[in-house]
Amino acid sequence: MVPQPAGPPPTIAGSSPSPKRTGCLGIAGGVTLGILLGFGLLLGGCVALLAVAANQADENGVGGSSSRNSELDDVIGCELVEPGRIQLEVVNSSPKTSTYLLNIGFFDQTGTRVADQGIPVPHLRPDERAIERHPVLDRGGVTCRVIGGDRLAADSAPDELGEATCVLDPSRGPLGRVRVAVTATNGTPLTSDYRVGVAVIDASGSRRGAATVRIPEVQPGDSAGDRSVPIDDGGVGTTCEVARVERNAS
Fold this sequence. Notes:
Helices cover about 20% and strands about 45% of the residues. The chain is built from three helices and twelve strands, in the order H-H-E-E-E-E-E-E-H-E-E-E-E-E-E. Strand 1 (about 75-80) and strand 2 form a beta hairpin. The protein is globular. The N and C termini lie far apart (about 115 Å).
């Protein structure tokens, strides 16, 4: 046999070396790397857009904290007028009849919060001012402040609002509370239950107290109600108004 020379085979003049074959794994690796790089760029762009949108929302006051603060700005003041009783002043700045669910904090002489309690201010009409007294647990606080809360829309359908009336009773009940007669007249063909929100108004037009009355199973065409609803008006109420009516089939 003729001995073969060692080393790689010689290259023929004028020819080019054969390309190196990568195989299926090499191709797949290149494609995968390209996809990952593209996904990374896309994800980075989305994150940047979300950051810009969040900054714009904060600048425009769209965030939840800004909305919450605007609602709490409706609370003008909170005062401990006597042991176990506070006076709240609230003005509804929204265009809808609203119910306020307020969290009141009570603070001692050192400024330490010693208690808190939820207080509702129901069915306050747009631009209406409420100056109302509310019973609270006396735990040694000397000042009070609203520390949280929500404002909820409490509008009524026009036909329902017209189905209830109230009359202020000049005589006063226990603890000097004024009494209000509330009547619902069912103008529908169905037996219905009513929830009627009434308020007591003073001579200046400010609301001084409110209550919600339930009148069940009023027959079609009939009237029913409660003739003596006690409301704490601070002794200054002069008239009453129906602020909200909710009617449901019995």
